[in-house]
Specification:
single chain, about 140 residues, OB fold (Dihydrolipoamide Acetyltransferase, E2P), about 15% helix
């Protein structure tokens, strides 16, 4: 039988990404995203409900998220669910479900998520400098 483990969420970051590195040097970022849901209750009043999701990003995606995302910024996260369970030293069983990001899409305009001292022009200049002599390789 086929199986599918795919999730899409759109929400806002509840904190700045937390970037760390594994002992072998791989970047990993922990991101927390709030997703709002609005529905009409039995009494006819509108109810706002928030759900909070832990997201884990790896590699260059983790570094980019850490560089450009900040608390409050809107994102789309596409990934898969991963569950884990463990026992604490005092014998209590714990478990968690998190989203392992396969794609993180920034939803504000380009450069808006950058550090406050960066301007859109500086971000664009940095991208052009990164291309260096390979500017003729740009496909447009």
């Amino acid at each position: 039988m086929a199986s599918l483990n795919r999730v899409f969420i759109i929400g806002n970051l509840t904190m700045d990404p937390e970037l760390r590195f594994t002992p072998n040097g791989a970047a990993v970022a922990n991101i927390r995203v709030a997703v709002n849901h609005r529905y009409q209750g039995n009494d006819g009043n509108w109810v706002e409900e928030a759900s909070f999701f832990n997201v884990v990003a790896w590699g260059r995606q983790a570094e980019t998220a850490n560089e450009y995302l900040r608390k409050g910024k809107p994102v789309l996260v596409e990934g898969r669910l991963r569950s884990s369970s463990w026992e604490t030293p005092d014998g209590q069983k714990r478990s968690k479900v998190e989203i392992v990001a396969q794609r993180i899409q920034f939803l504000d305009r380009v450069g808006a998520g950058a550090r406050s001292e960066d301007t859109l022009a500086e971000v664009a200049d940095a991208d052009l400098q990164a291309l260096g002599d390979n500017i003729d390789d740009v496909p447009f």
